[in-house]
Amino acid sequence: MTQDTARTGLQLRSLINADGELQLSLTPVPTPVPAANEVLVRVEAAPINPSDLGLLFAGADITKAEQRGSNREPLIVARVPEAALRGMAARVGQSMPVGNEGAGRVVAAGSSAAAQALLGKTVAVLGGAMFSQYRCVPVDQALPLPPGTTATEGASCFVNPLTALGMVETMRLESHTALVHTAAASNLGQMLNKICRADGIPLVNIVRSQEHVALLRSQGATHVCNSSAETFMTDLIEALIATGATLAFDAIGGGKLAGQILTGMEAAILKKRAAPYSRYGSSVHKQVYVYGGLGLGPIELNRNFGMAWGVGGWLVTPFLQKLGAQGTQRLKERIAAELKTTFASHYAGELSLLEALDLAKIAVYAKAATGQKYLINPNKDVG
Amino acid sequence: MTQDTARTGLQLRSLINADGELQLSLTPVPTPVPAANEVLVRVEAAPINPSDLGLLFAGADITKAEQRGSNREPLIVARVPEAALRGMAARVGQSMPVGNEGAGRVVAAGSSAAAQALLGKTVAVLGGAMFSQYRCVPVDQALPLPPGTTATEGASCFVNPLTALGMVETMRLESHTALVHTAAASNLGQMLNKICRADGIPLVNIVRSQEHVALLRSQGATHVCNSSAETFMTDLIEALIATGATLAFDAIGGGKLAGQILTGMEAAILKKRAAPYSRYGSSVHKQVYVYGGLGLGPIELNRNFGMAWGVGGWLVTPFLQKLGAQGTQRLKERIAAELKTTFASHYAGELSLLEALDLAKIAVYAKAATGQKYLINPNKDVG
User: Fewer CB in 10 Å around end: N or C, chain A?
Assistant: First the structure.
């Protein structure tokens, strides 16, 4: 067995205490010794995905966060609102590691041949706790990156790519033929646009600014609707008539958008069909899956879209379980093959673990603004 | 072929004209001569179901309705609000017959043996346009009632019974083991309570008054929650823990109730399980099907029930298509066998066609209040 590790490494932790105070800190944790079928990864790049922000900040008002402790050992504290706290009873008092995915170099390996084969390789990992200097994972959770691929290039090769591909697979499994996507100028949205262009799937992109319309058009998107425009509903219905989309993936969740999409779909269906009037609306099933929570308010559905509709939560992990191991493997192979093209991610910058707890940096990356995705390199600025 | 009919019969009609005015009238229509495989039914009892009210009144403000025309040939007019009108473009200018189901005597029959066999029998029909003196339908749409059953007893043997049984079948098909039902003191709700008691299915009844709690308890219901009570959420969660229900059928649709049910289900699941905290909530799928529109406002979903959830429209007809002919036949046989017990309906009164267009009567039956269901007998007070 090869040893090439410090005795402890730092790990970013998020804790809610009994008083409802959120505490973020860097905790030294013992660096594990890999078991026979495990590898130890020195994490070099881990993206801060919107899904990480939820665990990290727990709905706390981060604009009012304060730093306690020293600059070298900071403790960031913020208050979790009562309403958010109710749903988090199960994590109160638990110091939780963060970071769904990332990449780095295998610096130690267990005795098995499979583990030894990865030694020295750069691998991507979907394993949680990736905002850590070292992560020990089973061999089958470490995906070796193609030669010539850096940790930065491979850092985001699970969450967004599998989510985007999962949307397309869901469309096929549930017998739809086109897609609608909101917050469509996001990293994920740009990826989905590339996939749909490559696979010939009609896609209606919904964005919130003219700047994002231009961005997606520059990437070859055909249908881009600006929900801030006065003509939004007309534009949307036109795009829905052109594409025939009856399935939407919505990153926002709060507000009226999910309902507007269903309304637009029903209007498009009724315009194209010459079916007799039914007070139950068309018989075509229209579905919106909410996969994110960028909008925190309630979802408001004004029911003027008939009775054949559904709105529901969607997460990539349960979907992949439904798709099965073989299907998931097929998606992963495509991701590996197109990592520098279809599935390339762009970052606004790279943060060390200390920088990730810097109030000024937090103020920027906590917004999860489009084009402002950051990477954490837990081994940046470390001796 | 037997002839026992007048040359024309009256039919209740609902029309929206181009100005957005709703017009209700009694129109004389030629009484059809049955084709070989058809029967002519003299309708004697047809319930005014909530689903009929939607087609009849088209969302018009019926409290401000006026009568034009004579007392013998009334024309009731009311204004359809702009918002409601938008969804009804397809029916503007079409004079529409009303009445989903009903029962009566076969007074003429086509030449086929199957048709002749029904002559003189009392049959139930699910065929639309049942608020008519005479209805001609294919033989297979006419269900002969068991001997000794009156038209009144058989009038409601499709919509509510098939809907209630459809809910139970949906529960089984989608792998749930218990049910939640709202507006549970309705005719349909009482029926569902009887079915669930007979079949040993745990049922959480949600009602809006203490009076309805008492009514359902008097019929043997175990779990009845009053959504007007201050303790509603606590009561609901307790009932959900006791039953393990993860599927709800909601007659109301508007407001916060659907979301409250999902919140209660998630809370019940988390209380029973010792799973580790996940910011995505439990992995147990929670579903609310909205099958009615008693609440006209938007559905408001406050998302504090994790990611494994769905809300959608549900209608009995598409469900029966999914269930298939054999499954539907099984349900119909059960209904016929239990027509005077499980599937017995209760009515507040019987109206002639003229009375159905009486403003004072409309003011009562348009409310669709629990315990205030009316029957129309299109041949009442007719020479």
Answer: C
